[in-house]
């Protein structure tokens, strides 16, 4: 779940029901179709250098995944997982015939074997996972990438980040891509929606870069912060995580 576009996934199918319910129904996150397309075009451009040529990618919390077909041209397998059933249904309707793309449900995700994924993508996902569940999520991802895979965690929000910074990023993108008036109207719809209430009640997890690197280390991962965030919110942070231990070590146990 992404406050600028993607939906998150839980650790094996469990997350705050408030956020799943929010993303499972129409909402005012995107101002219009141009906003949606511009958002995913930015993601596609930023992610391209990180994709494993001929490898397997798990996009965890993929949302509408408008970049999936482009990713499938570079990667052998693109596996899409989202916690919201309505999002998964839209993905199936659009992508079910693509030979390189598979849409996963909760059971499919839980059944993925150790070392089956070359790259886990988690773009704007951590903020929707309760802080007490992050350890289990990281261990699960560590299990999936085995000894040689990577995890790309993007759009991490720092504590006390004013919402005005997100609004400024949205309006900046709107000016560049020609949907400024629609973006302003969208902000009005958001102000009248239940987004802020759900964010307050369901939680919105934030991390300093140092804390996230400590969390990654505890899960058997080395997290390297990227110089530039993935996506259209430059004030947030992205990390690439690599395994510290070989596959089969205790750090791989799912918790």
From TrEMBL:
Source domain of life: Bacteria
Enzyme class name: transferase
InterPro entries listed in its UniProt record: Methyltransf_25, SAM-dependent_MTases_sf
Keyword Chloroplast: no
Alphabetized GO MF terms: methyltransferase activity
Keyword Magnesium: no
GO biological process: methylation
EC number per UniProt: 2.1.-.-
Domain Methyltransferase residues, every copy: 57-145
Pfam families, sorted: Methyltransf_25
UniProt keyword terms in alphabetical order: Methyltransferase, Plasmid, Transferase
Name of the featured protein: Class I SAM-dependent methyltransferase
Organism: Azospirillum brasilense
Lineage, opening ranks: Bacteria, Pseudomonadati, Pseudomonadota, Alphaproteobacteria, Rhodospirillales
């Amino acid at each position: 779940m992404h406050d600028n576009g993607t939906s998150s996934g839980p650790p094996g199918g469990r997350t705050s029901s408030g956020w799943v319910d929010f993303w499972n129904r129409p909402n005012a996150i995107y101002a219009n179709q141009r906003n949606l397309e511009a958002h995913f075009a930015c993601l596609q451009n930023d992610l391209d250098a990180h994709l494993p040529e001929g490898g397997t990618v798990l996009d965890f919390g993929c949302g509408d995944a408008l970049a999936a077909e482009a990713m499938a041209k570079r990667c052998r397998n693109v596996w899409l997982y989202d916690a919201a059933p309505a999002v998964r249904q839209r993905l199936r309707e659009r992508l079910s015939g693509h030979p390189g793309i598979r849409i996963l449900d909760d059971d499919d995700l839980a059944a993925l074997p150790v070392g089956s994924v070359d790259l886990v993508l988690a773009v704007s996902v951590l903020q929707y996972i309760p802080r007490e569940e992050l350890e289990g999520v990281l261990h699960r991802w560590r299990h999936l990438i085995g000894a040689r895979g990577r995890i790309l965690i993007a759009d991490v929000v720092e504590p006390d980040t004013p919402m005005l910074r997100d609004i400024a990023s949205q309006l900046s993108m709107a000016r560049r891509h020609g949907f400024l008036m629609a973006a302003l109207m969208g902000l009005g719809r958001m102000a009248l929606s239940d987004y802020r209430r759900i964010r307050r009640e369901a939680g919105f997890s934030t991390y300093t870069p140092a804390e996230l690197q400590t969390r990654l280390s505890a899960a058997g991962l080395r997290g390297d912060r990227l110089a530039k965030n993935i996506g259209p919110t430059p004030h947030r942070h992205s990390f690439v995580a690599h395994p510290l231990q070989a596959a089969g070590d205790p750090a791989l146990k799912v918790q």
